[in-house]
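U., I forgot to send this yesterday:
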Amino acid sequence: MTIKLICSFILAFLFATAFGKYYIPWLRRQKAGQEIKKDGPTWHMAKSGTPTMGGVMFILAVSFVCLTIGFPSMMKGNFVHIFVLLFAMVFGAIGLLDDWQKIKNKQNLGLTAKKKFLLQLAAALVFVLLMRSLGYVRPNLFIPFSGKTVPLPEWLYFVFAAFVIVGTVNAVNITDGVDGLATGTSLPVMLFFVAVTFAWGQEFLELGIFASGLLGGLMGFLVYNFNPAKVFMGDTGSLFLGGAVAALAFAYDMPLVLITLGIIYIIETLSDIIQVGYFKLSHGKRVFKMAPFHHHLEMGGWTGKKWSEKELFVLFTGISLLFAIISFIGVFQRYAL
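Result:
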């Protein structure tokens, strides 16, 4: 098991870094540049034209790993890693449509919020129904740190699952706001799932292969996405990534772990909700200099210190790593060997 997980990481990392050398120049030739929001930090305007849809790099990398290192499992009839991959790819496809609309229209507006929400909700419900019918998930909620499992009515579980999945996907998307931020924040999340596989054993190998492959793919992508970014992941990558995080949490049968594991995603999303809500209630006043929270820090909110993109990367990745460790402490004894 250990060798397969290590090989998954290495193979995906090499695939993503090698593919990026050819893919990024191709994106430039196709003029697939990202338009920057005019209401964002003014210094971000210099990034306009940076190639987007870079998430394809780690999507293909983890797909390659699932179909090669994960192939023996498929021959034995275990397709859970493929289901997780396909689910994440559905969200990636929604993101691809969004990115294409932005490139086509030459502006930072793609699919409408309503269209994206309906597509994401449909994908979430289909995934949960499929995983439930195949016995990969149960209508129970495991509570981290307590070791207890609370049964739920089937209908309530589906409502809960759809809410968590759509929320997670969009939270990861919101976090993708400065160079390397969503990538760095998600690395400890994938590392957490790999560590859980080591702790829980062979039964979770297929999910570990996916998590390790995505970890390697993200590391390879970070080579090009770290500040100053040569490519952005785009909604193609961020929605795929959000789908992968949510799908893994449910496939490991512990969605509540996202409360601690996804703490950065939650902070980013809450800052956005608070900003919009307070703005409407106060008729124009703001809590943050700009939402989501990384822009608030970037613009010197509260302390006056203007955080650079590299500093934000270190801060957010470090917090994500800390809470990944805390999350692991809360769940590792569930099926510990």
